[in-house]
Write a structure and sequence with these properties.
15 helices, alpha/beta, Meta-cleavage_hydrolase, single chain, nine-stranded mixed β-sheet, catalytic activity, 397 residues, two-stranded antiparallel ribbon
Length: 397
């Protein structure tokens, strides 16, 4: 009974722990060889079994790397963090990260790094055997937080089964992506993603962006109207204005406070972020788990991520936001405290009849992880089926 209770507690915590606003370390060494499919499909069980063993099995060096990187071989199980930062013999975060990589590999995706002309390197997951003649390309863009694997793992198999070829990049300064450019704009992120798709020969594609990824998706749609077929924006406050902070629309009143939450340095701030993001946060959040996550994932590129936030908000006016021409599905958690529901209605008014708003009940900003079944169902229906005549009406689920 004690072991069963322990397993259920771990499973409950991990489900909450993988939410969309976790910051992450971006210095990733990308391995060309796929990680083997995990023997346990339950992430909590996989995590439990690996954390109950010595850390040495994760330290198996793999010398096969993507040719686009010049990195030295590293440990397969701890690829996003250096050994100098491993203060304890077991890292919960490292095991979670390894599990999500294995999930992507098992779904038929392969990791790679694409180097662009300006020195930017973008890490992404793409189909091992793309089939553009019979399958539609769909680009999933993560939010301001954990790398793509943490945010999109529940969506892989349903979307692939529905007939999509998935392309899942890490944005600059997240996961394994980096840029020497001082440009911190969402335009730079958008151009980089488009540059990667150009290299891969993807001419037309759909877009799904969550939170900050929605800002980037909006810019891609603006820059490439003839290539982007349709867009899904999930809790993406692209219609916010800089004055909204001082008017009290958000729980923070300035960019510095927002950065403290989204790039946390202390367990207390990380716990606050979890409570802010989920409608039903976990009752127990051990500080040791929080410290492990911060130590492993949040120590690099903190300043760059703060600058991304600053650029996103400063001098932002709705009057300067162009209207994208693609059919757009707006998905929002009814109890979103990061980007309040007012921004969803504002975006709907801005795009007018070209958009459809779906509000998901009992969900917050992490709606993509709280209600993945509802979200993926709406995504598939939107891309596969034509928009209904009443697409201008709000809809709740």
């Amino acid at each position: 009974m004690a072991r069963r209770y322990k397993m259920e507690s771990i499973q409950t915590f991990i489900k909450k722990f993988q939410f969309s606003s976790f910051p992450t370390n971006s210095r990733t060494i990308v391995q060309a060889t796929p990680i083997p499919k995990p023997s346990h499909t339950n992430p909590a069980l996989f995590l439990y079994l690996h954390t109950c063993q010595p850390f040495s099995p994760l330290h198996q060096t793999n010398a096969s790397f993507c040719q686009t990187t010049k990195a030295k071989p590293t440990c397969a199980g701890i690829r996003r963090h250096s050994t100098s930062r491993m203060a304890c013999c077991v890292s919960i975060t490292a095991c979670c990260d390894r599990y999500y990589d294995a999930t992507f590999s098992a779904a038929g995706l392969r990791p790679s790094v694409v180097s662009l002309s300006d020195g930017t390197s973008i890490h992404l997951w793409s189909p091992q055997y793309p089939n553009p003649s019979s399958r539609r390309a769909l680009v999933l863009i993560h939010g301001f937080g954990a790398s793509a694997t943490w945010q999109w793992a529940p969506y892989l198999r349903p979307l692939i089964k529905a007939g999509f070829d998935l392309y899942v990049p890490d944005l600059i300064f997240f996961g394994g992506s980096f840029s020497p450019s001082p440009d911190r704009s969402d335009y730079h992120q958008a151009r980089s993603v488009v540059g990667v798709l150009d290299r891969l020969g993807v001419s037309k594609f759909g877009l799904v962006g969550v939170s900050y990824g929605g800002f980037v998706s909006y810019r891609i749609s603006e820059l490439c109207p003839e290539r982007v077929e349709r867009v899904v924006l999930i809790c993406a406050g692209v219609c916010l204005e800089d004055t909204d902070l001082t008017k009290g629309l958000f729980v923070v009143s300035n960019v510095a406070d927002a950065a403290e939450l989204l790039v946390p340095r202390r367990p207390e701030k990380l716990k606050e972020l979890v409570r802010l993001t989920f409608v039903k946060p976990p009752r127990v959040m051990p500080s040791c788990f929080m410290r492990d996550y911060i130590q492993v994932m949040c120590t690099e590129y903190a300043q760059e991520k703060t600058e991304l936030l600053q650029f996103l908000i400063q001098d932002r006016k709705l009057s300067n936001l162009p209207k994208i021409t693609q059919k757009t599905l707006i998905l929002w958690g009814e109890e979103d405290k990061v980007f309040p529901l007012e921004l969803a209605h504002r975006l709907k008014r801005h795009l007018e009849e070209n958009s459809q708003l779906v509000i998901i009940k009992e969900a917050g900003h992490a709606v993509n992880l709280e209600k993945p079944a509802e979200v993926v169902k709406n995504i598939i229906n939107f891309f596969v089926e034509p928009c209904s005549d009443n697409s201008t009406n709000d809809h709740k689920e």
